[in-house]
Write a structure and sequence with these properties.
With 458 residues, the protein is of the alpha+beta class. It has helices at 9-14, 40-51, 61-67, 83-89, 146-152, 175-181, 190-196, 199-211, 217-220, 223-226, 235-246, 251-260, 264-267, 269-272, 282-299, 306-329, 333-351, 356-371, 379-385, 389-403, 405-419, 422-433; strands at 24-26, 56-59, 76-79, 93-96, 102-107, 110-116, 129-131, 137-140, 160-163, 169-171, 183-184, 214-215. β5 and β6 form a beta hairpin. α8 (199-211) crosses α12, α15 crosses α20 (389-403) and α20 packs across α21. The protein binds adenosine-5'-triphosphate (ATP) and magnesium ion. The site of adenosine-5'-triphosphate (ATP) has 13 residues, from α8. Adenosine-5'-triphosphate (ATP) binds at residues 60-61, 73-74, 76, 153-154, 158-159, 197, 199-200, 244.
Amino acid sequence: MFSNTKSDQSNVAQNRSHGDVNLNIITRQEHTISRAHISDNALKVLYRLNKHGYDAFLVGGGVRDLLLDKEPKDFDIATNATPEQIKQLFRNCRLIGRRFRLAHIMFGREIIEVATFRGHHQEPEKNQSAQSKEGMLLRDNVYGTVEEDAERRDFTINAMYYNIADFSIHDYANGVADLKAGVIRMIGDPETRYREDPVRMIRAIRFAAKLNMTIEPNTAAPIKELVHLMSGVPGARLFEESLKLLQSGQGWATYLLLREYNLFSCLFPTVAQYFTPEQNSDVEKMAEIVLKSTDKRINEGKRINPAFMFAAFLWYPLQYRAKELAEARKLNHYDAIMMASNDILDEQVRHLAIPRRHSATIRDIWQLQLRLTRRSGKRAFQMLELNKFRAGFDMLEMRGKVEGGQAKELATWWQEFQDAPSVHRQNMVQSVGSEKPSGRRRKRPHSKRKSSKPKAKE
Ligand code: ATP
Ligand code: MG
């Protein structure tokens, strides 16, 4: 099935059969992958498997990125040893996974993932593999040959195997040619493969954006029709994928492509409902600013806080919800924001499961937007000490760029306050001390408070 003469993809896909593979072997002399660029730990694992008589290949993104002269994110290994056999060879081995059983070989902070070749999943009676009504694979632990393993991978450029026995590359799906041509091409029939695992749709987008490649037309064609399948993907997996998509240094390009394929709305429906044809709503402006700034930070090697992007994406949807609630239930601004925060996060988590530790940070960043308006007395000084201050301030600055007006003035004030010598800081605080706090609409005293929501600690 890998004969893959590019024009006859659909025919080829109908004829999926084992063994009918078109293997190109690229010898050590003919390619540029040097062991010097492979992690020592990955090499150790490859050598040891090989020494004990097993096949051992580096595969996936490791091979792809090395051929592109990029630094791989991780090194994945495929072998014909079973997970149990792998465990016997390595003391530092943990078997993980239910959907896919995998071995993790632990070397301090580096984890080398070793997978046993996967076979076809055609014998459901064995209870090794399971499929949902939609054709989605739920369990998938049938082992197979390296050829079958290659057919089970997603894109041709991800199915190149670097053989530790002779340092050659086994290219089963013409991945080398596609890599040279800059093409993301699904192995097999794209629609079937998307139905088996809808995450492959966002992986196509991810690689196209990350590698600046184009999605081959047959691979691209079914995506828009199948977007609805994304709702069957567990939220925890979508959260992980969203980080890989948007927080790997090409977030802005990936976002644009996700929008083009109607996939962004599967991940962030609350955000996507404010999308406009002109792409210039405040929600969209904020998304652009936060994604470009995240890309810049990552590419400069700076740390990022994963929660920040979510806080920024959802900030304006939060404002709109709060306004509705304030009007419908006669709540003050503060209470409306608190209630809307719950709504917006609940809604988001139903699609993409943001872990609790991150949602707590998102709330902190939002609350800081209210607190940053209050600067009199000791407040401004205390605020600087908060460990989320920087994130709160960064978001205020982004809001300033989106909205101008008060947010912009406030961001400028805080910037100046941080830069100022302490005498000047005192003056700054005194001059705001005589003003009414801005942006705070809560009237006090308020005798008819209905809500029992807790007040922010200030
Ligand atoms: P990255 O640079 O993001 O690590 P990668 O290609 O290595 O890219 P991984 O998620 O690490 O991606 O997966 C390793 C390999 O496993 C892929 O290259 C691909 O061959 C295979 N793979 C991963 N996810 C899928 C999937 N959903 N369907 C089929 N094959 C997959
Ligand atoms: Mg990888």
